[in-house]
Design brief:
Elements (H helix, E strand, L loop, with lengths): L1 H27 L2 H4 L2 E5 L5 E5 L1 H4 L5 E2 L5 E5 L5 E2 L3 E7 L5 E8 L4 E8 L9 E7 L8 E10 L6 E11 L8
Parallel strand pairs: 5-11
Antiparallel strand pairs: 1-2, 3-4, 4-6, 6-9, 7-8, 7-10, 10-11
Length: 174
């Protein structure tokens, strides 16, 4: 009986720790947190707004308009090579995420769609993907797109589009 009681207590403790960590991570990466504004009143009685320190933590992260997709790498303007390391957080319908690389003419170099196996549906999931693509023989500009899918009709939503540069074939980009 003592062993069963310990198991139940450990299970409850683990559940509490998991919920607490999820709450903290959800707060830290919430789109509302990034837009907090601190208001101060000057000596003339006018209210002045200044961005909170929370805005600073997102300066190197590209965020979709909805705040449901955050991409930390690649960064805008990065020179990339294969495999492209993609990192970030996503919250989307059934944990489905899509990524696409296009060359400067808008031709798709590589596209992939996947369902994340880890993470609860409806919560942010961690993205850590090595995207392999055919390295162009001539360096050039391009775009990287990441997106989730609509529960209503399967269309692409929460899109982040970043300008990138392809490194010359056989050379390292990042």
């Amino acid at each position: 009986m003592l062993n069963d009681r310990r198991t139940v207590l450990m299970l409850i403790g683990s559940l509490f720790v998991g919920v607490f960590c999820g709450y903290i991570l959800g707060w830290y990466f919430s789109p509302q947190q990034a837009t907090l504004v601190k208001q101060t009143t000057n000596e003339n009685g006018q209210v002045q707004a200044s961005p909170s320190p929370a805005v600073e933590k997102f300066k190197d992260i590209s965020v979709s308009d909805s705040g449901e997709l955050l991409i930390s790498t690649p960064r805008p303007g990065d020179t990339i090579t294969t495999p492209l390391k993609v990192n970030g957080l996503a919250r989307g319908f059934e944990n489905r995420v899509g990524m696409r690389l296009k060359n400067q003419d808008g031709i798709v170099v590589r596209e992939t769609k996947f369902t994340a196996k880890q993470g609860e549906i409806g919560t942010f999931i961690s993205l850590g993907v090595d995207m392999i693509f055919a390295q162009p023989t001539v360096p050039g500009d391009g775009t990287f797109e990441a997106f989730t899918f609509s529960a209503k009709d399967g269309s692409e939503i929460n899109k982040v589009t970043l300008p990138i540069k392809f490194a010359p074939h056989g050379r390292s980009g990042l």
